[in-house]
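User: Hi! I'm working on a homework problem where we have to compare a predicted structure to a textbook description. Could you give me the structure for the chain below?
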Amino acid sequence: MLSLRSSRGAKIRAFSRLLAAAAILPLGACNAIVLDPAGDIARQEANLLFVSTGLMLIIIIPVMLLTVFFAWKYRQSNTEADYEPDWDHSTKIELVVWAAPLLIIICLGAVTWIGTHLLDPYRPISRISKDQPVTAAHKPLEVNVVALNWKWLFIYPEQGIATVNELVVPTDRPLNFRITSASMMNSFYVPAMAGQIYAMPGMETKLHAVMNEVNKSVGFSANYSGAGFSNMRFGFQGVAQADFDKWVEGVKAGKDGALDRSVYLKLEQPTEKEPVRHYATVDQDLFKAVLGMCVQPGKMCADEMAMIDQRGGLGMAGIHNVAMLTYDKQGRAQSFTAKDSNSKALSIGYVKALCSDPALLESLRKQEARLAPSDRVDEASLLSKKGATISMADPANPAS
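Assistant: Happy to help. Predicted structure tokens:
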């Protein structure tokens, strides 16, 4: 009997310790960055999460308590509980069971609809903080973000610098992010600042945010993108404007040199655990070229291709340009430059010549803006008038 009591006491003590540990576990989330962020947009998203959870708990908690209550009250050993085997309906219960969830769903729908529009990442922010609206004095900082395999490139157009795997932004200043990817779909996520935004090749997504507190945390990819996904992280800092200016000066004095197209093409190659890099200068048109998938010299940009298509295309004569326009390793390796003189290059490269002469291309754009749709220019004929040394392929002979 004594051993039975001691065994039961040991089980009770173990169960008490387990309950105490379970009670402490929620405290581990007190400093969770998602629930306690440093940026106003992320704070509003956290509040939306709290409100939604609270509304749902209005139903969940009573249901859980009533489950335990009914199981206890109508247990087999309770002979005093009412036994009504023929009962099957209660109007009052039906009203409560249906009306309460319906009201909660209506409230959740209203909160979600309002929050979705107010926190739209494409919508410029209207406030720095709860009590501080955005004014004309708040000049936004633009940062161009490129997801590479498996690292992050950040270009600061205003400052003329670029970094790899390090993002530093000033506090209390609107932040405008233009986001794209160099190869596969990815996701840009800084929990302390705002929600995650997808990055896709050939497309631009946007994020508007602000940092309200000095903060040092981590950003990462929130979308699986291959072998190096786990290490696709970058350091993130929110600093005062004066400290941000000092950091910019430090980057400009860095030893990684300039980021031009040739350097970018090397950086674009897949690597893992890439160290932080600081580029003192950056090609002004680099982000546009990445977005247009035409960083490699001699490759047509997506917007130029779209412009030709919008004008009616180039007909059968342009059928051989498919290899040039294909954005993959084989297509890029087979591309030709406008300076190639061999017959094969000349027979299929005349479309590229349109984009290789900036003055000619600019004149075409100006004429396009002035002409009506019925009067648009035929690029091929205009090129021949300009004396470009380009031969047209024979439509009847695809191998020409």
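For your comparison, note the following. Confidence is low (pLDDT under 50) at residues 329-336, 382-400. The radius of gyration is 31 Å. Good luck with the assignment!
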